[in-house]
Amino acid sequence: MKHGIAQDGLTSTTCIGLFLAAPSIPVPIVRAGLYLARSLGFFWLARRLTRRGLRIICYHGFAVAEEYKYRSTLFVRGEFFRKRVEYLKRKGYPILALQDALAALAVDRLPPCATVITMDDGWRGVYTVGLPIIRELNIPVTVYVTTYYVENRIPVYTVTVSYLFWRAAAQRVDLPRGIGAFDLRHEAEIAEEVVQKFGAELPPAERLEFLRELAKALDVSFDEIEGEQLFRVMDEQQLRGLAAAGIDIQLHSHRHNWPLYDQKMVESEIDENRRFLQRIVSRPLQHFCYPSGVYGPHQAEWLARLGVKSATTIDPGLNYIDTSPFALRRLVDGGPVSDIEFAAEMTGFMELVRSLRRWLSARRTQRAGAGMNSSGPGQPSLPCGKGGA
After folding, report:
1. Of 259, 261, 287, whose CA–CA distance to 273 is shortest?
2. Whole-structure pTM value
3. Are 249 and 239 within 8 A, CB to CB?
4. Residue among 149, 165, 291 nearest 207 (CA)
5. Beta-ladder partners of 277
6. pLDDT of 13 over the 70 cut
7. Exposure of 9 by Cβ count < 10 A (0-12 exposed, 13-18 middle, 19+ buried)?
8. Please, what is the angle between helix 339-347 and helix 42-49, to 10°?
9. Whole-angstrom Cα distance, residue 38 to residue 102?
10. How many Å apart are CA 266 and CA 234, to the nearest integer?
11. Nearest to 99 by CA among 300, 253, 258, 328
């Protein structure tokens, strides 16, 4: 179901003030503020101030057809990726292998504005669309691979279901297997949630058959999905080809299901993931990416015991010598990210903005605490935390 604010005459001070202080700003105003900041030299200054920070960029898959119209962060076009890498090279961002970058970061010997490119999940388009571009541009890339769907050759269920509902032409649907009838004009999210839960309990072969039934009910061609091999991860042969081409393949859990507090499940996910990939990859499997960015600081010890040396998040920001190797920040790139926003992240301007916003928030908290403490005798003393950059 394919179910900006213009402001004239804003001064530069007003634009930057809005940008730094407001919790939510319309995208056109943000971009206007970024263009203004660049023209005033703030991008250049930010790059100098943050040059010792490691930039790690996060991509996911490549569109093999028109999936980018559905989720343009999950599936980027090949030309989009090419232009990004060409920008990095043109602007002098050295692109390093993950292992080399982390080793240099640990001893504070990174080249200025060092950059790492990572890709999550192991989507088929990384091999069919991305690899030729990676080879042509001669860049190191790390691909974090989740292995359940490598082993079970069906489309990724959660993403396929979401796509089918996005494509649905019908306004009302009677879902298969007695799940229920829904008015998609008002209940699409509820219907999709029910279907996601239902399919999670099915074995792979039955899950595939249910996807066909669901597509028919929603009046979407499943033949197109199967014919173009949409929403599939790489198979073993493609992963071997990726590894043979020098791509760094690393850990991303087996089922892409990551608990916060179940240590045994964490161990199982890493062990199964590593055991499967060891049949394909000769280099050590010791770097990890948290599925969907779910993690807790307490998991660092768990991962270290499992022989993992680093773990990436989807928290925005740069990485310095004092950044935990188990909470590495990344810049998530994709179709919705404009050129000026990408430049703002890469130069470190947005890093400085986030630091300033944290500082302003801490100041407001301190003032509020001071106000309560000065409200009269007998009031309890409230602790105030300090904000850091």
Report:
1. 287
2. 0.88
3. yes
4. 149
5. none
6. no
7. exposed
8. 40
9. 30
10. 23
11. 328
- Spatial separation of the C-alpha atoms in residues 238 and 56, rounded to whole Å: 25
- Three-state DSSP at 61 gives strand
Architecture of the domain whose range is 54-152+232-345: Alpha-Beta Barrel (3.20)
What's the token pair of residue 344?
A: 């703002």
Whether 247 and 141 have beta carbons less than 8 Å apart is answered as yes
Spell out the domain ranges in the chain: 54-152+232-345, 157-227
Classified as helix, coil or strand, 151 is helix
Q: Is 4 exposed, middle or buried (0-12, 13-18, 19+ CB in 10 A)?
A: exposed
Tell me the two tokens of residue 363.
Answer: 């100041």
Contact between residue 143 and residue 249 where contact means Cβ atoms under 8 Å apart: yes
Give pLDDT tens digits for 92-113: 999 999 999 999 999 999 999 9
pLDDT tens-digit series, residues 134-153? 999 999 999 999 999 999 99
CA–CA distance, 386 with 358 (Å, rounded to integer) = 10
Q: Most distant CA pair in the chain: distance in Å?
A: 75
Q: Which amino acid is at 341?
A: E
Measured distance CA(195)–CA(118) in Å, rounded:
31
Non-local (6+) Cβ contacts of 110 within 8 A are 52, 54, 96, 101, 104
